[in-house]
Amino acid sequence: MEGSLSMKLEVNASASETWKAYGSLLLPKIIMDTFPDKYSELKVVKGDGHSGTIVEVFFAPDVPGPKWYREEYTVVDDVKRFKLATILKGGVLEQGFKSYVTRLEAIEKEGKKDACIITGTVDYVLEDESGLQVVSGAVEAFYQILKAVADYVIKHQNTTSTN
């Protein structure tokens, strides 16, 4: 069973400023700092935040389910402000998913240079329908991450550094 869920979030910051967070290793750092009750550690296995980077994310001890996942940033395009990340091992792959791919894109808002739209999409393949109950939780967590990073960008506009 395949599916795709998309969400959009308006950010009161330019697309280029917003991309500094979403398109770099600052993204997982913001996640770790914002959700210490959900995530305990991030390891960069390979790379510098661009295409080919592999990270391992470990969940906090009290979080039920898988304890970690490995993710690869398969595409990071700083010109188009587009990121594609694939879960390689662990996480939702231990909860009935055959694949789980996230897409992020920062799109300039027409007529507003200090605003953009972040689109987040989750493309997934489930082993069977029993994994459907996990989908809503995984997508909600993805939305909370998008929102937290947007809040960070708004708070730190013009001071965000990459990597």
Automatic annotation (TrEMBL):
GO terms for cellular component: cytoplasm; nucleus. One of its GO terms (biological process) is abscisic acid-activated signaling pathway. It comes from the Eukaryota. Signal peptide: none annotated. InterPro entries: Bet_v_I/MLP, Plant_def-hormone_signal, START-like_dom_sf. Keywords: Alkaloid metabolism. One of its GO terms (molecular function) is signaling receptor activity. PANTHER family: BET V I_MAJOR LATEX PROTEIN DOMAIN-CONTAINING PROTEIN, OS08G0374000 PROTEIN-RELATED. Belongs to the BetVI family. This is Bet v I/Major latex protein domain-containing protein. The lineage of its organism: Eukaryota, Viridiplantae, Streptophyta, Embryophyta, Tracheophyta.
